[in-house]
Amino acid sequence: MRKHRHLPLVAIFCLFLSGFSLTRAQQQPAQDSADIIFLIDGSNNTGSVNFTVIRDFLVNFLERLSVGAQQIRVGVVQYSDEPRTMFSLDTYPTKAQVLDAVKALGFIGGELANIGFALDFVVENHFTRAGGSRVDEGVPQVLVLISAGPSSDEIHDGVVALKQASVFSFALGAQAAPRAELQYIATNDNLVFTVPEFRSFGDLQEQLLSYIVGVAQRHIVLQPPTIVTQVIEVNKRDILFLVDGSSALELSNFNAIRDFISKVIQRLEIGQDLIQVAVAQYADTVRPEFYFSSYPSKREVMTAVRRMKPMGGSALNTGAALDFVRNNLFTSAAGHRAAEGVPKLLVLITGGKSLDEVSQPAQELKRSSILCFAVGSKAADQGELADMAFDSSLVFTPAEFQTAPLQGMLPSLLAPLRTLSGTTEVHVNPRDIIFLLDGSLNVGKTNFPYVRDFVMNVVNSLDVGSDNIRVGLVQFSDTPVTEFSLNTYQTKSDLLAHLRQLQLQGGSGLNTGSALRYVHANHFIETGGSRIREHVPQLLLLLTAGRSEDSYLQAANALAREGILTFCVGANQADKAELEQIAFNPSLVYLMDDFSSLPALPQQLIQPLTTYVSGGVEEVQVTQPESKRDILFLFDGSANLVGQFQVVRDFLYKVIDELDVKPDGTRIAVAQYSDNVRVESHFNQHQHKPEILSFVKRMKIKTGKTLNVGYALEDALRSIYVRSAGSRMEDGVPQFLVLLVAGRSFDSVEEPARLLKQSGVIPFVLQAKNADPAQLELVVPSPAFILAAESLPKIGELQPQIVNLLKTVPVPSPGSAGKDVVFLLDGSDGVRSGFSLLKDFVQRLVESLDVGPDRVRVAVVQYSDRTRPEFYLNSYMDQQSVVGAIQRLALLGGPTPNTGAALDFVLRNILISSAGSRMAEGVPQLLIVLTADRSGDDVRGPSEVLKRGRVVPIGIGIGNADITEMQTISYIPDFAVAVPTFRRLENVQQDISQRVTQLTSEELHNLEPVFSLPSRPGSGNKKDVVFLIDGSQRAASEFQYIRNLIERVVDSLDVGIDTTRVAVIQFSEGTHVEFLLNEYSSKEEVQNAVRRLRPKGGRQINVGNALEFVSKNIFKRPLGSRIEEGVPQFLVLISSGNSGDEVDDAAVELKRYGVAPFPIARNADQEELIKISLSPEYVFSVSTFRELPSLEQRLLTPITTLTSQQIQQMLARAPYPPPGRLECIVVAAL
Asked: Which residues are the signal sequence here (predicted)?
């Protein structure tokens, strides 16, 4: 069953009273109360010796609590194969009796540790009035899980049950207990406690006690509910398990088979309208355990399976058993849905050779369209198994009937069990589908035809009709507009005729929340043509190209509560996190690189659109974290602000008003500086929002002629970020600085800035007026932390940005070893047989990592001849979610693994801030490449670009993969690994895990990458690169960043008269040649010339004129271009805005010559840039030229990897006549 959390499932605690200590517990007064169940691992994972340690821990712990019938009640449950109550909440009314009962606890033992079963058990039997709970009286319900190893069964349903029951869940783990699993079960990560060995359990007592006391005293409470959704696929089938129950099978073997069947059932979508299950045993006769119609829910089926005992019997008559199930169990009377054409599947599990003949019964099975899976032990006859199985691929022979071998074949059995249908056909249910299309300028007229074609392609694949699938369509921007309703068109042809005429609505805004509310109120109702009351599945397909400008969460939740499945397709500037919240669950989100990719998407969408239904919506108690932060606003109070201080004061007032100001939340300090510092309010002076806001309103400007930023930073560290001034830096509370600078500092900033960073304070700088960017960059970790105001009167425009940053910037935990780890997986057809083993390897590796938003982040990308991101570095922030996403991976498919293109994709689309990468913050970037074949394209160029950007690739080659290629990709050749088969991946798992976890930033800094060997002689390593740069007045203030980019790009190229040649041209109204392609013959000469560049000036930006100039005058043989020799020609255009003249004709002419243009522009029209560019994927937009360093690697990749032939192929697909020759020119237009 596809299960996903619609919103974070983990409930996060909230402390409502100050002074609550995490390390100091006090004996609580008599009126404090709680009901606590201790759920203890009684399996062999724990063992009798460690169980004694747990028992002693409980005794010591309970001694510290006020246990009693009116105070804290205690119950204890052990679990292994099944849960067992030791005593209930109301069994013992006094502390003495409870302690005696705990001291007398005995170890139950058992092979399995079924935590999921145990969680369900405690909710149903203990957190109830009958179990002694006082939940009806509002007494807090608490579960303390003590685990020694991973769960043997599925835990999701049990976890949801706990949260629905508003239970505080604590998880204590030792030995092999997976922290990710404990985090999934616990109410919050803070309620997870682990130690390597049970003998260290005593170390946890103080921490656990503090939280239990907090719950009992109501200092820790749960907040209002949100929702959890689950999606299931309409995939009807009737599956019968026929199990060898003969006496020849040992009890341990039968138990392993029983648990294996449980595992299979856990992973199926059980229900009366979904998959039905029946089970029978056989020996000399057949004994049905239950029929298809016996149990309608998975929980009931699982309970019945767990109760199974071997029937016994000396003979094993498999042939007779096959006849019995065909004639007596696959019948309507036994619940089989023959009239609906539901597939019939039989899973036979046998431990020996049949005493009767099986060939004829097996043939009868096949004639009756019963698909038989044959699972046999070593003692079974292989010929019999092959005869009985529907196909040879459905014969399974585990090494023995024990837990590990049976579980190992689970994936290979489940896939056909879920998908095979034989000759029968299951008809799709009718459904109502509304398309909600972004009709704003985010899409634009150029891209809207792609959107229209996408909708038409989807509709063409649907069985449209008033009794089948109904379709409606709404466009939205600022407001939503109905194009047609569900009952407007009765035929596909009429519907398609309307779609062909569909035009873009237009509008600058994008109010997605309003649009969601509109379709809910006007379309998913009977008058709008909806059949929602007839229980016809309701689907909404949202396609958007930008972020919503209004609130959308409540509207999305309202749709989900009604069971409406919202699918989200995002393109352009769509926000992945936003779409995952809007979608019914994250599995229904589809992100596209660009609009031109939309026509291919319907192939992925048709199956879920026509088969998925709501699997239920559950309300779950969650809370939001109470965030503690200390924020100092240190503002320029010098003469720079005379006459404009009121604007700044109003800005400060509005920012503070957005923050959660209170003593135990966010504390605020305010100071002004000029030649010295005047503290207006310390952290411990105005600790409530009304107080600080009232104070800020009355603030007056300090004044002062000079501006000493360095002194101000030193003074802040010395007298404001200290305990005596109310700072909680020593308590580990994050410290922030918002520094406003409106002029150049008169003193040195460098050393105070270094001390500030060393202290752990996170600075943001508001740049205004004549502030020196070079000075400000010394203060911040990266230019992204500088917010520039166009003028002081417009500083209010920065309010949303700074508020968002102050609320959301992640704070690294002390000593945390943050890393961003990307897995790049070969998903081509050659991997198909080993894909499950590949996933297992990645999963095990992830389970060894300390996954968290401030620690290790993980992304996964699949590739073949195309590349598909599975999830990004900011998609999942806990290990359980990452592992779940890995388990859901499906093979991409495709003929050839183009590893080079995939490496380039990762650099351009994954290792960027918006996708969760922390490269700009200096966090190590690790790329683990797993491939089973030689790349179909060149890997040298992309690998070199990655490594120059300090990305650390680790190449793992399997089977036919080329080890030399792996060494070329890897950061150093020693990082490359080769294994002969997928199964051998487990042999290198520990080495790779150690390398990933133990590599530190310092080690990587000292480790020099080994770059690939130079290309073979010839024109392959020759390039002509022209930089065409904006030298106008508009670019002048940030010209240094343009210059720096050219210098860095040149440094990465093999510059020489016979290798890469470089030219630079400036433009504004006209053009100015700085130097030509044949002017300099060495890298040093080019870089010296670049360093001397100064802006030429000019008011106008005539890009069209500049393109025409380079086309006619620069890409010519006499001026150094080797265009006639077939050397690639590249043009990189850097512009500070929209062109003042037309660019169309000049761009077309340039590309006719075979030049590959890469435009980089600040706040320019995207359509104009696309017209200029080689391809839309090579359009680079920035909001400030300070962001140019982030483009360096993305720009280098195409320059170093694209060949003349590839450029010609891309240009041939452009909407103008293809170039007449194979030359390509590299021109960098800046």
From this structure: 1-25
CA atoms within 13 A on the CB side of 1105: 14
CA dist 968 and 940 (Å) reads: 7
Neighbouring residues of 754: CB distance < 8 A, sequence distance ≥ 6: none
* Cβ atoms 234, 300 nearer than 8 A: no
| Domain count within the chain | 6
Q: Which of residues 593, 617, 641 is at a domain's end?
A: 617
Q: How many CB atoms lie within 10 A of CB 1019?
A: 14
Helices (H), 85-170: 95-103, 115-125, 156-164
- Give CA separation, 877 vs 309, 873, 890, in Å: 43, 8, 21
pLDDT, mean of residues 701-707? 90
Q: Could you tell me if residue 623 is inside a domain?
A: no
Q: What does pTM read for this prediction?
A: 0.37
Instruction: Give how far the C-alpha of residue 1156 lies from the chain's centroid of Cα atoms, to the nearest Å.
Output: 34
Residue 547, token pair as written in the block: 């972020």
Say yes or no: 69 and 188 in one domain.
yes
pLDDT of residue 802: 87
CA 140 from chain centre, in angstroms, equals: 33
Task: Report d(CA 798, CA 299) in Å as an integer.
Answer: 54
Per-residue pLDDT reduced to its tens digit, 85-118: 999 999 999 999 999 999 999 999 988 888 988 9
CB-CB neighbours of 594 under 10 Å: 15
Residue 1072 phi/psi, 5-degree rounding, is: -140, 120
Closest CA to 1198 of 1128, 1146, 1134, 1151: 1128
Q: How far apart are CA 439 and CA 669, in angstroms?
A: 45
> Which among 1043, 1126, 1026 is positioned nearest to 1078, based on CA atoms?
1026
- Is residue 1224 situated within a structural domain? no
Instruction: Give the torsion sign (CA, 872, 875, 878, 883).
Output: negative
Residues in CB range of 159: below 8 A, 6 or more apart: 9, 119, 169, 184, 185
Residue 40: C-alpha distances to residues 68, 119, 174 (Å): 21, 11, 12
Domain end call among 393, 419, 445: 419
Residue 1029's nearest CA partner among 1020, 1017, 1038, 1021 is 1038
Q: What CATH number did the domain enclosing 600 receive? A: 3.40.50.410
- CA torsion, points 1042, 1048, 1052, 1055, in degrees to nearest 10? 70
**Helix locations, 317-381, DSSP H:** 318-324, 359-367
Share of the chain above pLDDT 70, in %: 91
Q: Angle CA(886)–CA(891)–CA(896) in degrees, nearest 5? A: 130
pLDDT in tens, 1113-1159: 898 888 889 988 889 999 999 999 899 999 998 999 898 888 999 99
Tokens representing residue 13 in the block: 């605690």
Q: How far is CA 652 from CA 110, 648, 660, 703, in A?
A: 63, 6, 14, 18
Beta bridge partners of 631: 668, 736
CA angle 858, 863, 866 (to 5 degrees): 135
* Token reading at 1085: 């000469």
Residue type at position 835:
F
3-class secondary-structure state, position 237: strand
Query: Do residues 605 and 716 both lie within one domain?
Result: no
Lowest mean pLDDT among 62-76, 612-626, 957-971: 612-626
Residues 458 and 562 reside in one and the same domain: yes
Contact (CB, 8 A) for 436 and 552: no
Count, in order, helices (H) and strands (E) of the chain: 40, 42
Q: Tokens 């509709």 label which residue?
A: 459
The Cα 1057–Cα 1021 span in angstroms is: 12
Does position 423 have pLDDT exceeding 50, yes or no? no
Beta-bridge partner residues of 229: 617
221 confidence band (pLDDT: 50, 70, 90): low
CA distance 764 to 62: 48
Domain that holds residue 995: 819-1006
